[in-house]
Known about the structure:
- The protein folds into 2 domains: 2-36 and 143-221, Translation Initiation Factor IF3; 38-140, 2-Layer Sandwich (Alpha-Beta Plaits).
- The chain has 4 helices and 8 strands, in the order E-H-E-E-H-E-E-H-E-H-E-E.
- The protein has helices at residues 5-8, 52-72, 119-128, 144-170; strands at 2-3, 23-34, 38-49, 80-94, 97-113, 133-140, 180-183, 210-221.
- The strands form 2 sheets. A 4-stranded antiparallel sheet has the order 1-7-8-2.
Amino acid sequence: MYYQPWTLYSSPASPIVPACHHTIEVTGEGVVPVAPQKAIITLGVVTENISLTAAQKENAGTVTNIIEALLSLSVPKEHIQTTQYSIDIQYNYEDGKQTFRDYKVTHLLQLTIDKIELTGFIVDTAVKNGANTVSNIQFTLDHPETAYNNALSLAIKNSQEKAATIANTLGVKIHPLPCLVQELSRANEQLPSPVSFAMKAVTPIQPGELRISAAIKANFTYS
């Protein structure tokens, strides 16, 4: 995304920003550390059986038990969502030959947990009721755009500081407003939080800290 200040500041009282001649180009970065507000857990049941009907029935019964256990913990029903249901044929390979082994039924649930301090307890409850796969635990924010906008503001200030440092070193006078601002990619704006598992009464899930980042490229004119 590009921003041109002379199009954003149209008031007659606004400062006039010159065209981009004799410019200093810099990048600006901003990082905002925030505590996560919710956890998103993906877990479920993988069942194998030579009978497809038996595999489906066993899988469905176990998933039902897990859901009922989660509901008893006051996890809202609308926060429990199926994200994968698949049936695969398993084969053995011997001497270059493929022979049927069994059917594999996979049913994964995605849970959204508002009370992140209960994450470990919820995982343990699901496992005790038959879950045999936990594929992902992600910590996130209710409104990540707010933190991102704060990081973007810091990135712009950082670019101004860099440009001022360069101008002072060169002995030139820099215009305080950039003539061009480009918002850079927001990749990895939420770094994964550490997750640890241990064979204890309550699995110790550590939410850690999220680091929301933003970056911009800016051109400043000088004379």
